[in-house]
Amino acid sequence: MGAATPPHTPHPAIPGSPVPLAPPRTRRRALFGCLVLVTALGALDQTIVATALPAIVAELGAPSRVSWVVTAYALALTAAMPAAGALGDRFGHRRVLALSVAVFVAASAACGFAGDVGFLAAARLAQGLGGAGLLVLPQAVVAGAVPARERAAFLGPLGAVYAIATVAGPLLGGWLTDVTSWRWVFWLNLPLGAAAAVLVRTAVPTGRGHAGRTRFDTLGAVLLATVATGLVLVTTAAAETGWNAATTTGAALTAVAGAVALGWERRAANPVLPVALLRDRTVRLCCLLALAGGIGLFGVLAYVPTWVQELYRTSATTSGLLLLPVTAGIVAGVNASGFAVRRWGVWRPFPVAGCALSGGAAAALAWTGAAPLPVVAALLALLDLGTGLFMQIVVVVAQDAGGPRVVGAVTAGLAFVRETGVTVGAAVLGALVARAAGGSYAPVFTTTAACFATGLLCALGLPRRLLESKS
Which UniProt keywords apply (predicted)? Predict the structure, then answer.
């Protein structure tokens, strides 16, 4: 074990600024409440519509197209993430966050008034554009207001809110549909969004941005959005119809678009996604860890309820309740690691231990077969505890390595990579389930374990350094 190196300075190729001063306690509480609400809004709408789909079909018809109500939001969310972060860096995070809230609320109102599935899907697309800012910019706002060493503890609860909202979304959506109407799944965002808009104006620090004289990288944003669109469309089609000539061709075209986008972003004067920062080993390894977390955690969780229902012959409610220990594991992991980093400044052990724990739990799920449900619940909780230990840490470390001028772009890049992992992981694991004999889910957990083993190698390659303490 080597000695810890001094605190990391911003990336040498990018001009930095002094470590941010922590805002007063009352201001910080208001900021925290604002960002919790904003994050919950963006995360809820990823899953809240799922249980309302039957009611939407019953009223609007078009069952063959109703899946676009879900897909449109995911597509726009993923596609707009890089642009949201870069626009925040350029024009100020508070200004772009306020615009994102406004777009999200207006699109939510339009969703509630939809008279057909086509209009609803289009409104969901607009809602996803706003949702990208809601999920990316809170972490960038924290980077500008809180020193790196304390940032992990501040971001930990936001990660927990994201996890809880994602799991609670279907339950809340089903309840609203049963007691009122599916339209209130969207109209609920109006009062919450109005409160968020007020808090953004009053609690989020004003930032001037770094617009300079260079133009915004519009072509880069379009190319990255094209790649994200291709990923969502190809993986959705592959999950529904399997791999055939059409899906294979789509995957090849998406790969070409990805290569073109990366080539352009390397040459752009002010790139939306600063891929040049990947030359920094810390940023590169944090991106790989975000990808591993996306594939390994959220990819496998998409199939846990179905697996439990098929293997244990349980009800949908019971299988859904099994996600509660999953949520508890994430909440415990992100908060424990965040508070530990704030106290000691040492962060590297958490990605190492987290990947080892998650990989071991996934391997145990693959080997145990039909273990008792309490054992399954415990292993799932350990899998998520491990991922929670490094889920937010890698964001803070990458922000610190990149420097303050591109903190939004770095944050958005990590979110983009994670969402790509979620999308691709769900499709790949779904294909494994479809091809396995007797619907066995062992390949899903084996692949997940291998993914976290790769993440462990990346974590071991991270440098030993401390995060900045407050000045």
Answer: Membrane, Transmembrane, Transmembrane helix
Q: pLDDT tens digit string along 114-173?
A: 988 889 999 999 999 999 999 888 888 887 777 777 887 778 788 788 878 877 787 788
Helices then strands, counting H and E runs in the chain, come out as: 20, 0
Question: Quick one: 304 and 358 in the same domain?
Answer: yes
259 lies in the same domain as 363: no
The letter for the amino acid at 177 is T
Query: How do the residues of the chain divide into helix, strand and coil, expressed in percent and rounded to 5?
Result: 80, 0, 20
Residues 6+ apart with CB under 8 A from 407: 89, 140, 143, 144, 399
3-state secondary structure of 280: coil
- The pTM score is 0.77
- Is residue 189 located within the same domain as residue 286? no
**Beta-carbon neighbour count of residue 67 at 10 Å?**
14
Buried b (16+ CB within 10 A) or exposed e, 9-37: ebbeeeeeeebbebeeeeebebbbebbbb
For residue 334, with 0-12 CB atoms within 10 Å meaning exposed, 13-18 middle and 19 or more buried, which class applies? Answer: buried
The Cα–Cα gap between 435 and 59 comes to 36
Q: Give residue-wise pLDDT tens across range 366-381.
A: 888 777 888 888 998 8
8 Å CB contact between 223 and 264: yes
> Within this chain, do residues 255 and 286 fall inside the same structural domain, yes or no?
no
Which are the contacts of 121, defined by CB distance < 8 A and separation ≥ 6? 65, 68, 69, 72
Q: Which of 50, 322, 39 is nearest to 171 (CA)?
A: 50
pLDDT score recorded for residue 184 = 92
Distance CA 380, CA 397 (A): 26
